[in-house]
């Protein structure tokens, strides 16, 4: 995404809030808000924000998994399934 196409001063945010909501909801592109010429905020629609949060959570899970693999702190799937089978058999008894 090019931030240069969606850069607006804070005064624009104040005077065009309803229009910004409509635009961001339709385009799903975040808007960069500046104050005194400096970037201060990123405004985005809720759906995009939620998707971003889900993506970050997934990436964190993948990073933890990769770290576990690198550290050797993993259990082979066959062993996990054997443990589950053993638990199921113990419950049946």
Helix residue percentage: 55-70%
Summed over residues and divided by their number, the pLDDT gives a mean of 92
Radius of gyration, taken over Cα atoms and rounded to an integer in Å:
24 Å
Question: How many strands, what sense, and barrel or not for the largest sheet?
Answer: 3 strands, mixed
Query: What structural category do the secondary elements indicate?
Result: alpha+beta
Q: Kindly give the count of domains.
A: 2
Give the neighbour order of strands across the main sheet.
Answer: 1-2-3
Helical region count? 4
Unreliable stretches (pLDDT < 50, length at least 5) are none
**Tally of extended strands?**
3
Care to describe what's here?
There is one protein chain. This protein has 93 residues and is α+β, with helices and mostly antiparallel strands. It contains 4 helices and 3 strands; from the N terminus they run βααββαα. It has helices at 10-15, 17-27, 46-71, 77-92, and strands spanning 7-9, 31-35, 38-43. It has a 3-stranded mixed sheet with strand order 1-2-3. It has 2 domains: 3-44, YefM-like fold (3-Layer(aba) Sandwich); 49-92, no CATH class. The protein is 63% helix and 15% strand.
């Amino acid at each position: 995404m090019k931030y240069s196409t969606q850069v607006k001063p804070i005064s624009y945010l104040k005077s065009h809030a309803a229009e910004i909501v409509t635009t961001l909801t339709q385009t799903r592109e975040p808007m960069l808000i500046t104050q005194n010429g400096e970037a201060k905020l990123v405004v985005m629609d809720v759906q995009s924000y939620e998707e971003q949060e889900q993506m970050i959570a997934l990436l964190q899970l993948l990073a933890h998994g990769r770290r576990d693999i690198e550290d050797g702190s993993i259990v082979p799937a066959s062993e996990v399934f054997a443990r589950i089978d053993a638990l199921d058999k113990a419950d049946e008894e």
